[in-house]
Amino acid sequence: MAFYLFQASYTPAALKAMIDDPQDREAAARPLIESVGGKLHNLFFCFGKDDVLALVEAPDDSAMAACVLAIGASGAFSSGKTTKLMTSAEAMAAMTAAKTAAASYTPATG
User: Fold this and answer.
1) Helix %, strand %, coil % for the chain, to 5?
2) Which residue of 19, 38, 46, 63 is 20 to 30 Å from 2, comparing CA positions?
3) What does the pLDDT look like over 29-65, one tens digit per residue?
4) Is residue 74 classed as helix, strand or coil in its secondary structure?
5) pTM of the predicted model, to two decimals?
């Protein structure tokens, strides 16, 4: 399974709803992620541009996209982004493949 970092900002209406009636958003997110065969490792509220960060493990890009589409369609977020993450082992494999591929590449010259 692949790892993803989901970052998002709530709408003012969603923030007001959570202040008026505090809600466990991790408990709300977990069943959505599990419904596509994924696992929610952590959900964090944070300061700064984003209101929430989630570390998600999902079977593939399509499964993660399904979660993101469902969340986006809810109207609770004003913005969001998803970053696919690689383990160190996956990065090493990519570096090895890049070493081989680099021999086939001709860079631009000036």
Assistant:
1) 45, 30, 25
2) 46
3) 999 999 999 999 999 999 999 999 999 999 999 999 9
4) coil
5) 0.87
